[in-house]
Design goal:
420 residues, alpha/beta, D-Maltodextrin-Binding Protein, domain 2, five-stranded mixed β-sheet, globular, binds alpha-D-glucopyranose
Length: 420
């Protein structure tokens, strides 16, 4: 009798055990989370990702896919995978200008349920911008980027304040043989050119889009701004090669000690302080020049993490987003790579202030942060602007013609979609 019972029991227990094991492993399966980031961010995040995976072993496994470096190439990659459906990513690191388009297309999961108003209050003003679309939070900031003017403290007493001063000092220093060239910036036909142009337009009192949301590119102020950009190149204050410079090329020239001034983002600071920099310890930062009476502005850059619709494990994805963006992570990234913190309290952190004398100026620039037009059609209108400006800078068309064309095409793009 006993033996028979045992026999029955062993027959029954096997499937029971299998079912129990399956149920346990389903409940405790390691949740895979995949993020897509441009290569430089993926590289700089690798130590944090390792740390995250150690701390979440057996529960979450975070993988970071490394995408292209330039913002447009990165967006093309992200969009093609989104359009094909079922993208292999749970979250993307997105540039501030992509947000309206991605949110309007329904590709992103709102984050309102995951981040509170208090969470947002911890961010510095510049980092609070560009994360919402139609009143929903769709992006949690990863770095706070803003356009800066770098200047050589060994070549000038103070940085130039106005476009005229910048032109004058550049030409003077070249004439004195103090430097090879004056001012390096992003003159290539790509997104960086739009970022620089926005600052310069505003410095001359011009606007890309007016307060009515319509293009304002044929105004006398924008015309003067573009003429100034062209004059920089024509007079040699900027090298002709600047029409082919993105951030990296400008940084190389400045880091080698070839230029007196540079427009770039905050990450350049860390690069300029490395032992192989010819200008280490001889750099100041400020914001782009503006005509007397105009408030200088600094283009709002910044990248943030967005969760994709259909993310396999939303809670785990948000846990990863939080981990990679919390104060400690910001601190590590700022010290090691110069990525500007988003957390306001870090701008008062004695430990950071001791190693980063540029922190107060960064905070000041972030106060002046100005977004590019927040429309889902941004990529198209920026492409028009870059194309027309590049024509002027390379001497292929007059600024007047170029701006008329930019105005008409921008209007057509915005109207065809029913306005900005
Ligand atoms: C930086 C900025 C980004 C901008 C890009 C242009 O990465 O953060 O907003 O679009 O530069 O090159």
């Amino acid at each position: 009798m006993r033996r028979r019972l045992r026999w029955w029991w062993s027959l029954l227990s096997l499937p029971l055990l299998t079912v129990a094991t399956l149920a346990w492993s389903a409940a405790h399966a390691v949740e895979q989370v995949t993020l897509l980031m441009p290569a430089p961010f993926a590289e700089s995040t690798a130590p944090l990702v390792r740390q995250f995976n150690e701390q979440h072993r057996g529960r979450i496994e975070l993988n970071v896919s490394s995408g292209p470096r330039d913002t447009e190439a990165m967006s093309d990659l992200a969009i093609s995978s989104l359009i094909l459906g079922a993208p292999p990513y749970d979250a993307l690191l997105i540039d501030v200008t992509w947000l309206p388009k991605y949110a309007a297309a329904g590709w992103l999961e709102p984050l309102d349920g995951f981040f509170s108003a208090e969470d947002e209050q911890t961010l510095i003003r510049g980092a609070r911008q560009g994360n919402r679309y139609q009143d929903h939070l769709f992006r949690w900031p990863f770095n706070a980027d803003v356009g800066l003017l770098y200047w050589r403290t060994d070549l000038m007493e103070a940085p130039p304040q106005t476009p005229n001063e910048l032109l004058g000092i550049s030409r003077q220093l070249i004439a004195d043989n103090a430097v090879k060239t004056g001012f390096v910036w992003q003159g290539r036909q790509y997104e960086g050119l739009s970022c620089d142009a926005l600052e310069i337009f505003r410095g001359f009192g011009g606007r890309w889009l007016g307060s009515d949301g319509q293009p304002a590119l044929t105004s006398a102020n924008v015309q003067r701004a573009v003429d100034w950009m062209e004059t920089l190149i024509r007079t040699g204050a900027s090298p002709r090669a600047v029409t082919n410079y993105a951030e990296t090329e400008s940084l190389q020239a400045f880091k080698a000690g070839d230029a007196a001034l540079m427009r770039n983002w905050p990450y350049a600071w860390a690069e300029l302080q490395k032992p192989d920099s010819a200008v280490r310890g001889r750099i100041g930062i400020t914001t782009m020049v503006a005509e007397p009476g105009q408030t200088p502005v600094a283009t709002l850059g910044s990248w943030g993490l967005s969760m994709l619709k259909g993310a396999r494990h939303p809670d785990a994805t948000v846990e990863a987003i939080r981990y990679l963006t919390e104060a400690e992570a910001q601190k590590q990234r700022f010290i090691a790579q110069g990525y500007t913190p988003t957390v306001e309290a870090l701008y008062r952190d004695p430990e950071l202030l001791a190693v980063a004398p540029q922190l107060p100026q960064l905070a000041q620039a972030l106060e002046l942060a100005t977004p590019r037009p927040p429309t889902p059609l941004y990529a198209q209108i920026s492409d028009v602007l870059q194309r027309q400006l590049s024509g002027v800078l390379t001497g292929n068309q007059s600024s007047e013609e170029a701006l008329k064309r930019a105005q008409t095409s921008t209007s057509t793009i915005l109207q065809s979609a029913g306005g900005a």
